[in-house]
From TrEMBL:
Transmembrane segments: none annotated. This is SET domain-containing protein. Pfam families: preSET_CXC, SET. One of its GO terms (cellular component) is nucleus. Residues 356-476 form the SET domain. GO terms for biological process: heterochromatin formation. GO terms for molecular function: chromatin binding; histone H3K27 methyltransferase activity. Keywords: Transcription, Transcription regulation. It comes from the Eukaryota.
Amino acid sequence: MYSPNGQVVSEVSVSLEVINAEPVLDTHPTYESCSPSLRNTFKGDDDDNMLFIPYADDPSFNQVDHSSWYESFSWQEDFDPDLQVILLETSYRLRTRHSLEYEDIEECNVLPLKLFSSPGKPGLFAISRRRDRLIWIGNSIPADYVFPSMALPSNLLQRLQCVNSLFCPSLNCVEPLCAVHVVPNDLAPPRTSPKQATQTWADVETPCERQCFLAAATSQGVPCWSNSEIESFQVIFEIASSLSPCDLSVMCLKPSERSRILWYELLLFYFGSNEPCRHNGPCDTARACPCFQNGAHCQRPRRLRGCRCSTGKSGVSCATTKCYCVEYHRECDPELCLSYELTACRNSQIQKGAHKALEIGRSCWGLGAFLTELAKENDLLAEYVGELIYEPTFDSRGEVATHRGRSYSFKLNSTFTLDSSYLGNSSRFIDHSSSAVQTRPPNCRAYVRLVNGEHRIGIFALQDIEPGSEILMDYGHDFFSK
Ligand SMILES: C[S@@+](CC[C@H](N)C(=O)[O-])C[C@H]1O[C@@H](n2cnc3c(N)ncnc32)[C@H](O)[C@@H]1O
């Protein structure tokens, strides 16, 4: 035990029995790290800064050639925490003692580092949020001071856009901090029709409280709102147009202004219709698509029609190409297909995560994946999960994979390869076999499926497979030749 000033107060010694486990356990083979993941993750391209030189101690790997894929080494980047602290202090003093705006300081370019973030590059204010404020003799920044990049903008629309940017722009996903779809998003425009909005109005039947406009004998007239109040109203109404006027008034911080006329006028004035389009082909200007023009792509109704399968004599649905979705290599859609809710729907296993339990063990070729439960023909065994990478990164990583003698990448579509070298699940250990190998032919197969608008890879059983069996699939002609 140590005292608060680091002095040893007392010592305890514990005797341990050392067990030699060598005859019982094999040593684990040397392996690169791989982060476990349940879902694909967008990577795009590896950074231009090389983080470390692979196989730096191995003369048979051409490090010089390999480094030509990168622009610089990350350890060449200047990183000076002292400079960052001094610059924060400088900007704070310029602002508080000399009344200069942070934006003006930035524009003058007098500081060697940027205060505000730009796309992909965090600024000094954002960096300072990630660590504790340093206590040092020159500091005059109060502990509770908030630098501007840390504060939300005062305008409601901008504040909501800040929050909105945390959510995925894909209407099929909308997950917070989504790692798969990475296009920045704007707030979606209104999606209800004027008729529905006035209907909402008509639905308000009983007064919500004593001051409610419904209880008032006469309306109070139309109060005067500032532009920013009207702007806030518009934003709230676009997001939640089905709210009752009473709730809208509370959300707009106008609880006492429950004038029927006011709200009715505001509803009509700010409302814009946005019905999903019905044309064939992509939403673009050529088709004068209304949803394209206002930036609200109606993804599902535009692209797909759902299947109408029901469980037949076999007790399952969507198991053959008679199913419209199966025919077009996509999984059934929860919003469009009749069969989706059925547990017997055989064409929604990837999105439902209905895979089998696997165990990793020794195989003839390093490690392999083994089933720990019975699988029936066409059951999903696993989803092949990894990083979504572009071609240049596939090529640069390919050099390392060739040298390592093991590759974990899988062509997904014309844009992406899935690579589970550094991120994946147990499916990355599935080994190869071909039908020519009569003793151990492949017992599963990989299929690329369109799952709610995105390509994913499912590994499906080709036959019934007993627990304990190693699962093997045919990697295809090109794999070993390349
Ligand atoms: C997706 S990994 C499979 C897991 C790998 N066995 C491991 O230990 O990490 C693919 C790599 O496994 C090896 N492999 C898999 N099946 C093989 C086979 N039938 N013959 C030779 N090598 C094989 C090759 O090195 C290949 O690049």
